[in-house]
Amino acid sequence: MDEKPDKIKVVYNNKRATFDYEILERFEAGLALTGTEIKSIRENQVSLQQSYVQARGDELWLLEANIAQYVHGNRENHEPKRPRKLLLHRREINRILANLAQKGLTVVPTRLYLKGGRAKVEIALARGKRKFDKRGDIARRDADRQVERALREKFR
Question: Could you give the CA distance from residue 44 to residue 119 in angstroms, rounded to a whole number?
């Protein structure tokens, strides 16, 4: 039996999350969506810019994720920023909830993608970075860029 790996099409990559947070652990979660929502996702009409994950009881919910209304939708079109339930295994949810109890940890969505025709969101257990941590990242990125530029100039 030859199984083909599921093709992944990244719909939205939340670069701001990796800049503002130190990523500790990543999880893949499904999303409970309506029909017009998945159509909008397939058309890349998504933004996770201001979104976050919140625990409600023993479930995790994606809040403030903006999935634009489907252009060809009818009166049954969805609310763009409605709360969406994250679909994870019970042991993963318990692990995340236990880690959220620690001070300073949060869960942020890092990217949204289509895998095997289904919408998945990658969430990450993260710790907020301080201002000096961000400055170090910026300095490192600038230094790498300068080295890359110098190497390109040298081998022309």
Answer: 11
